[in-house]
Design a protein that fits this description.
This protein is about 40% helix and about 20% strand. By secondary structure, the chain is of the alpha/beta class. The chain has two domains: about 190 residues, 3-Layer(aba) Sandwich (Rossmann fold); about 150 residues, GMP Synthetase, Chain A, domain 3. The strands form five sheets. A six-stranded mixed sheet has the order 9-10-17-14-13-11. A five-stranded parallel sheet has the order 3-2-1-4-5, sandwiched between helices. The relative contact order is 0.13. Bound molecules: xanthosine-5'-monophosphate.
Length: about 375
């Protein structure tokens, strides 16, 4: 791979001239790499970053990034904790697309308000974005593109672009090239090679329900479906489980403390997000401890609107994919799941662990 740093640095210097640069740092790979890049190329006095804390990040993820920035002496990142605002707007909402729209809208509202508060003079400041190549060419084929479009291509941003006030130094790069650039900038591997994580974060991984039905999203004939998944209690080899999931999303029960399940009312709240954060972190640690993290493309962990003996239930969804358009569920050793992961989760207070055995299509990667 050709080293990109010298060429990109030169371009940034030329485009920025005497101006200063402001950017929103979500904590994802692209914006983190861009923030570090701008600091290296322009110096910290010419850069200002703002992180809007939506309350939907994974456990310790923000801290890991902050610790790295602090270690590097990068201290020009302001934090705005807006999690209560996001949660207030999501109260009682169940429909996945409505949740996404709300999260997108609150994000823009908070971002605009913060930019006004900072009173960044347009004569002096430019806005930078971590837009990458796939974000600019796709228009809704992948969910990520559709949603990111809300942030990266809204009218205000397009106006800035027209006036030459928008800086997008990563816009010609694919994801892997951004990661390699991150390595060139000496950002730790565990930060730059993180699995993809959706913009609305854990907000789309707390599966919401009115307490009557549990539904998950899928695709059929190129359209999104929203139907009840099939839950399989029987222990079967992966190949047999896979056969049961050809028409509909199906999840295999790895372990449970009682086999009576109750669909419960569930929304995105601080409590449900904290529960998910806790078990999600345990599942990720399991991947790391068993050298599986790099073998897997992405692994959503979803809090189901189900309880057994009053305890929460989750589903893990490890997949392998090239571009997220299609995906195969990953066949982790079933003994490891049953004998290593499940006992730990049970001890920590989980009621049941399910494992998604569906490919994409017919299911999507996320459950919402
Ligand atoms: P699906 O669930 O549609 O996901 O198979 C494909 C890829 O897109 C990610 N994804 C999102 N990314 N905002 C994002 O930025 C979203 O709302 C969103 N929904 C799904 C998903 O994690 C996977 O990588």
């Amino acid at each position: 791979m050709i080293k990109k740093l010298p060429q990109i640095s030169e371009k940034i210097l030329k485009e920025v001239g005497n101006k200063k640069v402001f950017l929103l740092v979500s904590g994802g790979v692209d914006s983190t790499v861009l923030f570090v890049l701008l600091n290296r190329v322009l110096g910290s006095e010419k850069v200002l970053g703002l992180h809007i804390d939506t309350g939907m990040m994974r456990l310790n993820e923000s801290k890991q990034i902050m610790d790295f920035l602090q270690k590097e002496g990068i201290n020009n990142l302001q934090i705005c904790n807006a999690s209560e605002e996001f949660l207030a707007a999501l109260q009682g909402i169940i429909e996945p697309e409505q949740k996404r729209n709300i999260i997108g809208e609150v994000f823009l509202k908070v971002a605009n308000r913060e930019m006004q508060r900072l009173a960044l003079n347009a004569e002096e400041w430019m806005l930078a974005q971590g837009t990458i190549y796939p974000d600019t060419v796709e228009s809704g084929t992948a969910k990520s593109a559709l949603v990111k479009t809300h942030h990266n291509r809204v009218q205000g941003i397009l106006d800035l672009q027209e006036k030459g006030m928008l800086l997008e130094p990563l816009a010609s790069l694919y994801k892997d090239e951004v990661r390699i650039l991150g390595e060139e900038l000496c950002i730790p591997r565990e930060l730059v090679w993180r699995h993809p994580f959706p913009g609305p974060g854990l907000g789309v991984r707390v599966l919401c329900s009115d307490g009557k039905l549990m539904k998950s999203v899928g695709i059929k004939n190129n359209a999104r479906t929203y139907v009840q998944p099939l839950l399989i209690e029987e222990d079967l080899p992966w190949e047999d489980l896979e056969k049961r999931s050809v028409d509909n999303r199906a999840a295999w029960l790895v372990g449970c403390i009682a086999n009576k399940f109750e669909v419960v009312e569930q929304y995105c709240t601080k409590e449900t997000l904290d529960t998910l954060r806790f078990f999600d972190d345990m599942c990720l640690s399991f991947l790391n401890e068993n050298n599986l993290y790099n073998e897997i493309w992405q692994m959503p962990v979803v809090l189901l609107p189900l309880k057994t003996a009053g305890k929460p239930c989750i589903v893990m969804r490890p997949v392998n994919s090239v571009d997220a358009m299609t995906a195969n569920f990953t066949k982790i050793d079933q003994n490891l799941l049953k004998n290593k992961l499940w006992p730990k989760l049970k001890e920590a207070g989980l009621g049941a662990l399910f494992y998604d055995v569906t490919n994409k299509p017919p299911a999507t990667i996320e459950w919402e």
